[in-house]
């Protein structure tokens, strides 16, 4: 049986994803078919935001993922080695070998 | 054909179909609500895919069974390994 925090976090994520999905589906799919004088339109932003908000969020997420990658790589720099430059040919050859094997 | 090329082909076909419809290149007179639904469609599909992924991960986290015995055994093995390596001179 899964423990307490796991269940809370897990079902919390499920709830969040369902809320976002229903709101977004109503916004994009259902609203165009509802009469523009209906009161429900009050609860939704202008349509352009339906693309702009996910786009902005996606870019922010990419930014954070990139920052995390840089941070994680920077952690490994403090090794008994003068700089990363001597390792670059090795990295390049490794990648090349990988591509050559894939082509075969 | 690799999986990547298959995906790219599918995306290219669907993308060009969507672009042709949104920009009216086919000369179809779609009713206005349908046009309104059509142009945000890629964003909608991405957001729904993201929600599905998030929901699935959350559900699997919530229903994953803990294995108390295996966890304890693993912890003791970790301590054993640390002691062994420290004895052999590896500094943590």
Automatic annotation (TrEMBL), chain A:
The chain crosses the membrane at residues 12-34, 46-66. GO terms for cellular component: dolichol-phosphate-mannose synthase complex; glycosylphosphatidylinositol-N-acetylglucosaminyltransferase (GPI-GnT) complex. One of its GO terms (biological process) is GPI anchor biosynthetic process. Its main location: endoplasmic reticulum. It is found in: Endoplasmic reticulum membrane. Pfam families: DPM2. The keyword Aminoacyl-tRNA synthetase does not apply. GO terms for molecular function: enzyme activator activity. Pathway: Protein modification; protein glycosylation. Keywords: Endoplasmic reticulum, Membrane, Transmembrane, Transmembrane helix. It is a multi-pass membrane protein. InterPro entries: DPM2 (IPR009914). It comes from the Eukaryota. Component of the dolichol-phosphate mannose (DPM) synthase complex composed of DPM1, DPM2 and DPM3; in the complex interacts directly with DPM3. Component of the glycosylphosphatidylinositol-N-acetylglucosaminyltransferase (GPI-GnT) complex composed at least by PIGA, PIGC, PIGH, PIGP, PIGQ, PIGY and DPM2. Interacts with PIGA, PIGC and PIGQ. Regulatory subunit of the dolichol-phosphate mannose (DPM) synthase complex; essential for the ER localization. Regulates the biosynthesis of dolichol phosphate-mannose. Regulatory subunit of the dolichol-phosphate mannose (DPM) synthase complex; essential for the ER localization and stable expression of DPM1. Part of the glycosylphosphatidylinositol-N-acetylglucosaminyltransferase (GPI-GnT) complex that catalyzes the transfer of N-acetylglucosamine from UDP-N-acetylglucosamine to phosphatidylinositol and participates in the first step of GPI biosynthesis. May act by regulating the GPI-GNT complex. Belongs to the DPM2 family. This is Dolichol phosphate-mannose biosynthesis regulatory protein. It comes from Cricetulus griseus. The lineage of its organism: Eukaryota, Metazoa, Chordata, Craniata, Vertebrata. The gene is Dpm2.
UniProtKB/TrEMBL annotation, chain B:
GO terms for molecular function: enzyme activator activity; glycosyltransferase activity. The chain crosses the membrane at residues 43-62. One of its GO terms (biological process) is GPI anchor biosynthetic process. It is found in: Endoplasmic reticulum membrane. GO terms for cellular component: dolichol-phosphate-mannose synthase complex; endoplasmic reticulum membrane. Keywords: Endoplasmic reticulum, Glycosyltransferase, Membrane, Signal, Transferase, Transmembrane, Transmembrane helix. Pathway: Protein modification; protein glycosylation. It is a multi-pass membrane protein. Residues 1-19 form the signal peptide. InterPro entries: DPM3. Component of the dolichol-phosphate mannose (DPM) synthase complex. Belongs to the DPM3 family. Stabilizer subunit of the dolichol-phosphate mannose (DPM) synthase complex; tethers catalytic subunit to the ER. This is Dolichol-phosphate mannosyltransferase subunit 3.
């Amino acid at each position: 049986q899964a423990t307490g925090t796991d269940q809370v976090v897990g079902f919390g994520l499920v709830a969040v994803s369902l809320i976002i999905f229903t709101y977004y589906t109503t916004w994009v799919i259902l609203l165009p078919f509802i009469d523009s004088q209906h009161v429900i339109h009050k609860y939704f932003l202008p349509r352009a935001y339906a693309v702009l908000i996910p786009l902005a969020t996606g870019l922010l997420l990419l930014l954070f993922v990139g920052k995390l990658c840089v941070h994680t790589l920077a952690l490994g720099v403090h090794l008994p080695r003068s700089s990363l430059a001597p390792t670059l040919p090795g990295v390049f050859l490794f990648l090349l070998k990988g591509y050559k094997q894939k082509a075969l | 054909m690799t999986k990547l090329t298959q995906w790219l082909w599918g995306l290219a076909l669907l993308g060009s179909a969507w672009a042709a419809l949104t920009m009216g290149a086919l000369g179809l007179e779609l009713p206005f609500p349908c046009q309104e639904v059509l142009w945000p469609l890629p964003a909608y599909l991405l957001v729904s895919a993201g929600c599905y992924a998030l929901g699935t991960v959350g559900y699997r986290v919530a229903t994953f069974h803990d294995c108390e015995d295996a966890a304890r055994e693993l912890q003791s093995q970790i301590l054993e390994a640390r002691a062994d390596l420290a004895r052999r001179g590896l500094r943590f």
